[in-house]
Specification:
Chains A, B: One of its GO terms (cellular component) is cytoplasm. Chains A, B: It is an enzyme of class 2 (transferase). Chain A is α+β, with helices and mostly antiparallel strands and 383 residues long. The first copy, chain A, folds into 2 domains: 255 residues, 4-Layer Sandwich (L-amino peptidase D-ALA esterase/amidase); 117 residues, ArgJ beta chain, C-terminal domain (Ubiquitin-like (UB roll), Roll), CATH 3.10.20.340. Chain A has 10 helices and 15 strands. In chain A, the strands form 3 sheets. The first copy, chain A, has a 6-stranded mixed β-sheet with strand order 13-12-11-14-10-15. A 5-stranded mixed β-sheet of chain A has the order 3-9-8-7-6, with helices on both faces. Chain A is globular, with a radius of gyration of 21 Å. Chain A starts with 8 loop residues before the first strand and ends with a helix. The interface between A and B is large, with 62 and 61 residues.
């Protein structure tokens, strides 16, 4: 049931013909209240897609009633006509649902630099409104997929309230969000400040720490709608922790479906002077094509890890660095440690641990290996 | 003749057995003076290889008489024993040539994280001293190759003086140098300040603007030896321009031999507010795996370029950006421009032009595409 598991929400996913595959491509999520509290986080890319430019305005007042999403076209770098298409979509949803256009978030995903087929989108939105139902979450999750091989969905149960979420994203998983669209719903009665703080913290610790290929998207949006219809006011910690747990679940689903990946890699940076140092070191490793190809080749190549650590300004001494693959400390104090032969990189899950010996902070960055399939998919598929 | 084209130099390249292939792996270059002026630029990686740690000390006084180089092992992350091996190599060269050890630069390239076979290196150095000759430049160029498919050599003739150079490097071509070793020689009579300034400027504008895979090496060294034996004191501009031209030639040879590349890509960023803005934008594009795989797929995907530009803090307006592939302006003012169909990405040479419309500065970054062969070579070959 995902995003329709919390009370007060209806959703739909329909086929509008924007995708040449003929698969579902328009989704709609509606918050029926009583509350219209909302929060969102967007890509930090300065070259943003039109739906992001629009939706940032919608969220200015921390309120939203509906999210309309399309796959089959990112509506990005499409100029004033593209912005107009986004605006029209919001107006159409608003007219059909008796809302204001500024209560309607718009998200798009697909090819960059081409105009959406406005007629098809219009027909799709009408069909989606007609199809809205209290169990439409899974259909919406399916309609936002692009190169995803499976829908991403999660639900968490709190004390008297529920949080649900759907996500899409398979490539371009990167800093400050991935090419991802995420819709989160809850029937908890939370105020806007609580919703916003909880969403930002959850995003910071989950989606923001995915770095599949270092490429930052133009359309990333994570939006949280709060209906308040459970009548339950959870404590901010309870709500925030549950939201974070759900976002972690969705983030791991995104990681597990990353384009062409053979390995899911957790890079744990421990004993850092600061959390930011740990994040920076983890990200530098996650972005090393040499490290990522080595994991693809099942080679526990710690030298490439040290070379990446050395590009950062984190606090550490080169001759004190330790590195482990799956708990085998192949590098001790910047020199060869345990035998590489003890490391088995056949399983999909890989954990790299880097001990900076500079403090007490830690962070984990998740990434994938760099494979032939990644090259194939991204050289053959235009995004 | 390359590095032995200028008067006052002898060189050699021999086989010491450090490479399992049995190919030449120890090179020696000796400056017979009268001048011993030298300058060098090293990797900015904080996790440096032992030969870099040693050679930085050698260059402290701006003087050097010899460079000994080995392939078949980077002597990197090998601890105190590794440093001792580097030091011993310098002492051995010095003893055989009646120099001080602090006059001997040491460079190593090959696998990281394994001790060099010191016995073989010692035998190789003796053989190299015995083989020194006034036409040994090409043999030295061959002995420093690793995954290079061909030696890189260049010579430039000034007014009464000559500059020669050899280089190696095929992967890890990256910021602030590549995995490259470069030895430059000249018989010009230049003082240390002139040599140093000319080398830094030439490096900044050539080797530093290669960014093949964004990975910074641990062993990079560019060293210039000046014998003064021509007796000619060129003006600093004449010397600097000729040196830069020669370094550009070597850098293009490195680019053309990058591991697994199908395309050589020049990213020209024009009308930037500052040169640094232009460099930052060019580098962001050069590091986008999505852009690089698109070029491999012969897809003039300007959307991925704009998405990379948007990750920088350069001065620009998203809706004023223009992008061309090989002179075809496929993006105008952040929207689709000329038809992508006009772009032919079959030839190896690709020029991407990004017009920031923010000022008068410009810079070019050179990179390669991301191919199946890159993934293969770097997953199968441990460095």
């Amino acid at each position: 049931m995902t995003i329709t598991a919390p009370r007060g929400f209806r959703a739909a996913g329909v086929t509008a013909g924007l995708k040449v595959s003929g698969k579902p491509d328009v989704a709609l999520v509606v918050n029926e209240g009583p509350s219209d509290v909302a929060a969102a986080v967007f890509t930090t890319n300065r070259c943003k897609a039109n739906p992001v430019l629009w939706s940032e305005r919608v969220l200015d007042d921390g309120r939203a009633r509906a999210v309309v999403l399309n796959s089959g076209g990112a509506n990005c770098y499409t100029g004033p006509q593209g912005f107009q298409n986004t605006h029209s979509a919001a107006e159409q949803v608003a007219a059909r649902l008796d809302l204001g256009a500024v209560e309607v978030v718009v998200c798009s995903t697909g090819l960059i630099g081409e105009q959406l087929e406005a007629d098809k989108l219009r027909t799709g939105i009408d069909a989606a409104v007609d199809a809205l139902s209290a169990d439409g979450g899974p259909a919406a999750a399916e309609a936002i997929m692009t190169t995803d091989t499976r829908p991403k969905e999660a639900v968490r149960q709190g004390n008297g309230f529920t949080i649900g979420g759907i996500a899409k994203g398979a490539g371009m998983l990167a800093p400050a969000l991935a090419t991802m669209l995420v819709v989160l719903t809850t029937d908890a009665d939370v105020d806007q400040a609580t919703a916003d703080a909880a969403l930002r913290e959850a995003t910071r610790l989950t989606f923001d720490r995915l770095d599949s290929d270092g490429c930052m998207s133009t359309n990333d949006t994570v939006v949280l709608l709060c209906s308040g219809s459970s009548g339950v006011k959870p404590g901010p910690n309870e709500f925030g922790e549950l939201l974070r747990d759900l976002c972690h679940d969705l983030a791991q689903q995104l990681l597990g479906d990353a384009e062409g990946a053979d390995h899911d890699i957790a890079i744990e940076v421990v004993n850092a002077a600061t959390e930011q140092d740990a994040v920076n070191v983890g990200r530098a490793i996650a972005r090393s094509n040499l490290f990522k190809t080595a994991v693809f080749g099942k080679d526990p190549n710690w030298g490439r890890i040290l070379a990446s650590v050395g590009t950062t300004d984190a606090v550490f001494e080169p001759d004190r660095l330790d590195v482990a693959f799956n708990g085998v400390w192949v590098c001790r104090n910047g020199e060869p440690g345990e035998s590489r032969d003890k490391v088995d990189l056949n399983p999909r899950e890989v954990t790299v641990t880097v001990d900076l010996k500079a403090g007490l902070a830690a962070a984990t960055i998740w990434t994938n290996d760099l494979t032939h399939a990644y090259v194939h998919e991204n050289s053959a598929y235009s995004t």
